[in-house]
Amino acid sequence: MSRSRLYLGQKIMVSALPDGEPFKSMIQELDDKKLAFSLPFKSGQYLLLHEGDKVKVEFVHKDAVYSFIGEILERKKVNNVSLLVLPRPTLLSRRQRRQYVRLPLVMPLQIRVAKEDGSEKVIRGKVVDLSGGGLQFVSKEALPVNTEVTFTLPLGAGEKGKQHLVVKGVINWVFVDRATKDVRIGIQFAGISEAEREQIIAYIFRELRKRISPP
């Protein structure tokens, strides 16, 4: 993909490799060989990077997420502003399948499980990861793999006002965090139409643009 998708003032997300969380930043300098970005930050904290550290840089363009990996060349100050310098990438990677672009978030959610007597059991928790194919749900209560669940996804304000989508899903994995006792549950959407999937994907890209695209 063309590296011309990079420009001054572009909002980006920077993650320390191999598995660091994404922090917000902005491209402040750009030429044919290098780019410089402001110190990445999140929730009032800065991502501490040094010369030689490897990072992943991501940004949104239209309906795709682009990324590249680089090694910090230097740290410098310009007009008393700290900048980190990377080689300008020759190629950008593009996530080809929109369905699998994932949105990290914190969204309160209640999932409902049908009981044998016809009533429903309600489990409260939060969504921490959303894609067009499913979501990751965190709660204090575990459920068996292959359990069928139902929930209502609030998809924010779209072209037709506030959107809420009733979705069915199937639990395909469960992980218990021994340190926090949190239960992480992977839920795959089941029986949703392509139109409904597109609603979810549209919400994901609206949220991504808010985070890492220019106004």
What does this structure look like?
It is a single chain. This protein has 215 residues and is mostly beta strands. It has one helix at 194-212; strands at residues 11-16, 23-30, 34-38, 41-42, 45-46, 54-61, 64-71, 74-78, 81-87, 93-94, 103-114, 120-130, 134-139, 148-158, 161-176, 183-189. An 8-stranded antiparallel beta sheet has the order 8-9-3-2-1-6-7-10. The longest helix is centred in the C-terminal third of the chain and has 19 residues, at 194-212. It is elongated, with a radius of gyration of 20 Å. The mean pLDDT is 88.
Output the radius of gyration: 20 Å
Q: What is the total tally of β strands?
A: 16
> What is the arithmetic mean of pLDDT?
88
Helical run tally: 1
**How do the SSEs run, as a string of H and E?**
EEEEEEEEEEEEEEEEH
CATH topology tier name of the largest domain: Thrombin, subunit H
| Lateral strand order in the biggest sheet | 8-9-3-2-1-6-7-10
The CATH superfamily of the largest domain is known as predicted glycosyltransferase like domains
Give the number of domains.
2
Distance between the termini: 23 Å
CATH class of the largest domain: Mainly Beta
Low-confidence blocks of residues: none
The major sheet is characterized as:
8 strands, antiparallel
Helix residue percentage: under 10%
Shape: elongated
Q: Bin the strand percentage.
A: over 45%
Q: Which structural class fits the helix and strand makeup? A: mainly beta
Gross CATH architecture of the largest domain: Beta Barrel
